[in-house]
Amino acid sequence: MRHFIIIALFLIPLFNFAQKTEELIDKVKKLMEEQYVFLDKAKEVNVHLDKLMKENYFDDFSTPEALARAITQEMRKVTNDNHLGVYPPRVVRERPNAEPNYLRNVARYYRPMINGFQYFENNVGYFDMRFFGGGRFFPLIDDVMAQLSMADAIIIDLRYSSGGSPMMVQYLASYFFEKGMLLTSIYSRYNDHTNEYWTVEVEGKKRLDVPVFILTSSRTFSAAEGLPYTMQARKRATIVGAITRGGAHPTRTHNIGNGFRVGIPFAMSINPVTKSNWEGTGVIPNVEVPEDEALEKAKELASEAALKYKASYFDPIMKALDDLNGKKISQQEQEKIHGLLEKIVKTELMNENDINSFGYNYLRDDKALAALAILKSNTLLHPSSPNVFDSYAEALQENGQQELALKNFEKAVKLAKEQNHESLERFQRNLESVKKQIKPKKVKKVPVDQLRALLDTVYHDEQDPIRKAMALRKEFGLESPQAKSMEKIIHENHAVNIVKVKKILDEYGWLGADRVGKQGNRTLFLVIQHSDLETQVKYAPMLRAALERGDAEARHLAYLEDRIASKRGKKQIYGSQIKFNPETKTTYVWPLEDPKNVDKRRADIGLPPLAPYIKERFGIIWDLEEHLEIVAKFEKEQEKN
To answer: Are strands 260-265 and 114-120 parallel, antiparallel or unpaired?
Structure first.
């Protein structure tokens, strides 16, 4: 059996306790008045220590360990502050003939911060966090949050966590709160300075509404108390377990001679909601149970919360799908289902493959309308995926809509070729299969000269009043009687023109410039562009197909898609939609998707850069940072709705 030799290392080998204790106490008192977060308590501690010294109270403690413990106990009697304490000289343990450990203090051999994660019943995620490491440990939080990204409720176990860095509290809490929220402030008395800790950007997906449960015990301390206190104050988490230890004051350690050290809290946390902290009281759980029963209780509560969370997203869409009846899905029904699915995708409750499976489940249950609504929405949510178009086409084929199935099979093959997709051969087989089922149609002869003349008339009837109105607005003002009278003519002419253009499109399809001339081709677009949302949505696929054949211009489709998006309250892509604000009497660019790259998208379809275009055409000065703020506000409003 090996024997261990314990050697206490002091700055001097031996010292007179009476003399040295007085020096230690004097240094402690000085530091307390300079550093301790509460000056009144520092003075109270110092008076108490002076009284004990006069009574020779500390003379009975003959070892450094006993002396440090005694001073600590007396200071805490006054302050009830578990961060405050005196520590004896460090003890070094030596092993005779032991081999040196050259890998000591290497990070990979530290005890883990995350002591495991798992999923419980009803998709409840759980992880055990043993301490709050600094910034270099953020990737560990990103990893575990990624692993639990599909959880419908999350349990964070802090029963064995004794604190750490406030930066880690800030980072982990930021996963559960919006950007720009003040989490806590830390005020330092010694330099009269306040540090504010706001939510920050995280590497992973924020979980802004997932139910959160945090487990606590009497061991939970310091920074490990900061997270539950902050989350509880904002009503963002349910705390389950025992009252925590109660240490809210950041502490700094000072050498006070002869190997002794004193830890003195120099600052205090201030929660913006409670205007207080957990010092001395601990975090009081919402559900107080013995700490060894906390996990089972949290699992029970989280399981119920997870089912409600899941239902809040899936019940509305299941009801909307069940309400479908008849032989056709209305535009309103399709938009409602798409909106609900879009919300689910944004929250990452489902991905592209999940939606496909969702649609196929309805298809197998002979609920064709529901399947078609789901799979069509998937093509809108993932427009670059050949697989979703192939799946939608398959559902259309089973529902007897061969022509539309053909178009979507063709789209799947086209995308697959562009991407060198691994399933290209399967998509091609599906395309050939549907082609064999479709009987070739007789091509109707197009009266080209007659249609050119008709579209020329439509063009002038549509555009001439618009040009006159623009001139009148510029001369007399937007609200002038002259401009208003011309607007009436615009609407009357358009009502006639849209009937003519619809008849052409329904009978002959979208005709290219080779048949009706460049102006005639543009007229088809202009009249549809000026029409109502239902008409625009109906003919947008026809324009898209014409573009693929070379019978339309890319910018026309871009303008139409932007206009549809703005009418639906969605972000535009190319910046073509300029709106008028009646309150400020100013024009502005409707919120953009990815504003930083708008000029690249515009260049791809032959449009000039946005800034000079809107300045010359509308007198708008483009400010990217200002527009990013508008987009952020717009997105927040969308989430509320």
So the answer is: unpaired
Is residue 360 pLDDT above 90, yes or no? yes
Would you state the structure tokens that stand for residue 53, as one six-digit string?
Answer: 């010294």
Residues 462, 455 contacting (CB under 8 angstroms)? no
Length of the chain measured in residues: 641
Task: Yes or no: say if 262 and 88 are a contact pair by the CB < 8 Å rule.
Answer: no
pLDDT of residue 169: 95
Long-range contacts of 556-560 (CB under 8 A, 24+ apart): 556/522, 556/525, 556/529, 558/605, 558/607, 559/525, 559/529, 560/525, 560/528, 560/529, 560/536
Identify the CA nearest to 6 among candidates 64, 71, 83, 79.
64
3-class state of residue 439 by DSSP:
coil
CB neighbour list of residue 376: distance below 8 Å, 6 or more residues apart: 334, 338, 392
Which residues share a beta bridge with 265? Answer: 251
Burial 572-609 (b: 16+ CB within 10 A, else e): bbbbbbeeeeeeeeeebbbbbbebeebbebbeebebee
Closest CA to 528 of 553, 492, 554, 564: 564
- How many Cβ atoms from other residues are within 10 Å of residue 448's Cβ? 15
The pLDDT score that the predictor gives to residue 104 is: 58
Please choose, from the candidates 377, 393, 411, the residue with its C-alpha nearest in 3D space to the C-alpha of residue 547.
411
Q: At what angle do helices 386-398 and 424-437 cross, to 10 degrees?
A: 30
Taking Cα atoms as reference points, which of 494, 490, 488 lies closest to residue 467?
490
Is the model's pLDDT at 481 over the cut of 70?
Answer: yes
Q: Are 638 and 565 spatial neighbours (Cβ–Cβ below 8 Å)?
A: no
pLDDT in tens, 588-597: 999 999 999 9
Helix (H, G, I), strand (E, B) or coil at 261: strand
Any residues with CB less than 8 A from the CB of 352 and at least 6 apart, and which?
A: 378, 381, 382, 385, 387, 388
Q: How far is CA 464 from the centre of its chain?
A: 48
Task: Report pLDDT digits (tens) over 236-275.
Answer: 999 999 999 998 888 889 999 889 999 999 988 899 999 9
Using CA of residue 65, residue 70, residue 73, residue 76, what is the dihedral sign? negative
Please state the rounded mean pLDDT for residues 560-580. 92
First to last CA, the chain: 72
Q: How is the beta sheet containing 251-257 ordered, strand by strand? A: 85-87, 260-265, 251-257
Provide the pLDDT for residue 94. Answer: 60
Burial letters for 157-193: b for 16+ Cβ neighbours within 10 Å, e otherwise? bbbbbbbbbbbbbbbbbbbbbeeeeebbbbbbbeeee
Single-letter residue type at 155? I
Whole-angstrom distance, CA of residue 163 vs CA of residue 194: 21
Q: Distances from the Cα of 158 to the Cαs of 148, 231, 238, 433, in angstroms? A: 17, 13, 13, 59
pLDDT at 583: 80
Q: What angle do CA 13, 261, 77 make, to 5 degrees?
A: 120
pTM above 0.70, yes or no: no
Strand partners, 198: 182
Residue 456 contacts by C-beta under 8 Å, 6 or more apart in sequence? 519, 520, 523
User: Which sign does the torsion angle of CA 470, 472, 475, 481 carry?
Assistant: negative
